[in-house]
Structure formats: C-alpha cells, structure tokens
Amino acid sequence: MADTTVQDGDGIRTFPFPVGLSVAGVGMHVGPVGAARDWHAADAPLDRVHRIDFHVVLLFTDGPVRHMVDFAEYEATAGDVLWIRPGQVHRFSKSSEYRGTVLTMQPGFLPRATVEATGLYRYDLAPLLHPDDAQLAGLRAALAHLQREYEDTTTLPLALHTSVLRHSLTAFLLRLAHLAASSAEARRQADTTFTLFRDAVERDFATNHSVSAYADALGYSRRTLVRAVRAATGETPKGFIDKRVVLEAKRLLAHTDLPIGRVGAAVGFPDPANFSKFFHQHTDTTPAAFRAELR
Q: What's 284's DSSP letter?
C-alpha cells in the first residue's frame, strides 16, 4: 500500500485508515489485537508518537497496559476500554502486552446523525473508560455481534453487508457513548474527593507513597479513592502518587547538583538502590542516565 502518511508541522506523522486491510474494503475493522498486523498500516510506528485519522477502540481482556494519549499516560486493565479519536497524539507502550478486541473505523463510515448521537468527536471526554459489570457485558455482547457480522461476507451482498455493519456498529457506539457520558458525570461528582487526594499527595508525596495511608487520612475507603482518582485522571491512586514522585525526582536531577542518593532520599527512598529501581521502572532509564542526557 502506498505511503499516504502526513508529516505535520510539529514532526508528528498522521496515518490514514488502512482500507486495504479491512474485510471487503469496508471502512471499519474489528478483531483481536496482538501480534497480527491486520488492523493498522505495516509501517505505523506503534511505539512512537503518532496520529491517526480514524477511531480506535480497544476493549482489554488483560492488563495492566500503559498507553499515552495526548501526552497523558493511562493505565488500563482487563475490562477497561480505551477510545482514541482522530487527530489525537498517542503511543503504544513497548513494555505492555495488548490483549483484547480492537475496533477501528473511518470517520465517514457512519451517517452524520449517528456521529452526533454517539459523540464521536467529544474530545472533552476521557479516552480511558471503566465500565461496571453490566455495562461491560453489554459492550462485549454488542462487539461480539459486530465482529460476527464483519467476518460474515458470504450471506449478504456487499451493499447489504455494509448496511448491517453500520447498524451493528451504531448499537455498539451508543453503548460506548452512554458509558463515556456517565463516566464524565461520575468524574464531576468525584472532583471533591480527588481534589482532597491531590492536595494531600502534593503535600506529603516525599514521605508517603501508600494509597491506604492517604485513604485513611482523608476518611475514605480505598475503593472510593480508587474510583475518584480514576474518574478524574484515568489513573490508579498509586499511579498518580508515583507520577508525582517521578516528576519531583526529574526536577531535582535536572536542576540541582544533589548526589543521586540524596535525590532519592528527598522523594522518599532512603536506599539509593530502591530509588534507582523505582526510577528505572517508571522511566526506562536510570537516574544517572537521565541526568546525563540533560547535560
């Protein structure tokens, strides 16, 4: 297939929907995500920052999976849904194994009324969604039905096959849109809980890395805290704490001459070896290498 990618002014490549890889050349694809490269262009640099001009919906059956969307890191696990919209900058993680079902679709595959009803371009909504058991069951059933229709190219003429796909896709997207909207409402209700947690982390991250300790101090159950932080940020409380610790460590490594051991102690790691292990786990580089890159 000819390279029709676009090089943007900021140097980030945009990849088009690979029509040639979809069954019967329709404007969508649904199937397992994994090693098989049958749902994206062969030259798409999945583990490098890039854009796409189509929608990608990933329903995970395993995790955790870390994925960057618009320069924010999200952590998904089994049962979570990641919705990446056209034009969003994203990157697949080298260290995560993606397992589940992937749906891709061209923006023009659905009629305008459906696009509006399903909120396909609600960029204000979080890309990572956490359906409850009932919502997940409905999404899985709708997606499984859509996949069966997508793979059945023999019982209907192409025009009817495409029409059935559009209707089946709409049913799935209406469920997905409802989940996204209800998640946004839950996030608004959780703002107070998250704000208190965020302020506590900002105050105590250098000495307290325990989610349970923060929950106890704030008077919330751990489960309530997990829901509030996920609704507000798409992350777990532990991920939020770790990100703040890493940010402070990076600041100290970049802007001070403190020995690495003292940098670790300043962010709650009296043992330099534990600090180096933590920093490498979250940045894929050592504190010394990170500092050297900036000097």
A: S
